[in-house]
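Revision sheet: structure tokens.
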Amino acid sequence: ATGALAPHRRSPRLFAALAPLALVLPLAGPRLPFDSLVTTLNPGTDLSQLAADDLPGPPNEGPVLLVLLADSCAACTAGLPALAGIAAQEGEPAVVGVFAGTRREARAWSLAHVPSFPVASSPVKVLRQYYRRLPQVALLRQGVITKVWRNRVPTADEVRAALALPAPAGASGVPASGS
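Predicted:
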């Protein structure tokens, strides 16, 4: 009979051990680096069929720097000059923004910030599977993600370095070399 009571005696200790975690995790969780585990915006993911309105073309044509952004994202606005620099350079990937919100909200954001690249829109509920916090920037080759920058906009040098990396298997139509 004492063996059956043993789990109940451990319950207060287990509760005391887990209570701080239960209090801290909801507050600290979005800042912890678990995005690759809980979102689908990861290298190797095919975004060629991304559901977004007003995309200038399919994201599977050449290298594309896809930027997920929103109105409430101060880092998105702060990264616009760096994105403009990338978009202006010949030989750099095409820069395309996807605004988390309605088409009307995306247009209002574009008019307020005048980005130097096209901005499409996608409902928050659709785009939310790809991020926990914004900005999220992904380098695509033939629609497949090769590199992701989370919660920040990359520099032009970082994008050039990522372009020099071999494409993942299937991103260019041929398997990546094993070297």
